Amino acid sequence: MKPLGRKQEKVRVFSFEKLKAWQLAKAFAVHVYTVTRQFPPEEKFGLVAQLRRASVSIASNLAEGSARQSTKDQAHFSQLAYSSLMECVCQFEISLELGFLSKAQYCSLRDQASELSYMINALQNAQKRTRGVNS
Q1: Does 67 map to a domain?
Q2: Could you say which of 4, 8, 116, 130 is the most buried, measured as most Cβ atoms within 10 Å of its Cβ?
Q3: How far apart are CA 124 and CA 56, in angstroms?
Q4: Containing H/E element for 2?
Q5: How far apart are CA 102 and CA 41, in angstroms?
Q6: Span 72-102, pLDDT tens digits
Q7: What pTM was estimated for this model as a whole?
């Protein structure tokens, strides 16, 4: 249980919060939000919105998948998370070429995406292996 606020109340830790992939995805989304603050104002409804939505979708799909009973459903949501990650990678390329990201920011985001990609794939493979058990 994690402490909450001044009263040090304990809150329930949900199963998805224990997933390393989810923890990385959440940190990735926060990083994307931080970096996109510097994008030009005219990109508020363009790349900024797309990147933020896709990055949050990664963590959200991992969380939603963890609530599913069948491993087939869990693997499906892991695939959706991976797809959103690839959407972000594509948009990083465009953002770099447009000069909205520095090379250092781009490399940092790509490194995080690479690690997260590995984690999501490992999670999905584990879900696929256990399909026969509770699919």
Answers
A1: yes
A2: 116
A3: 19
A4: strand 2-4
A5: 17
A6: 999 999 999 999 999 999 999 999 999 999 9
A7: 0.88
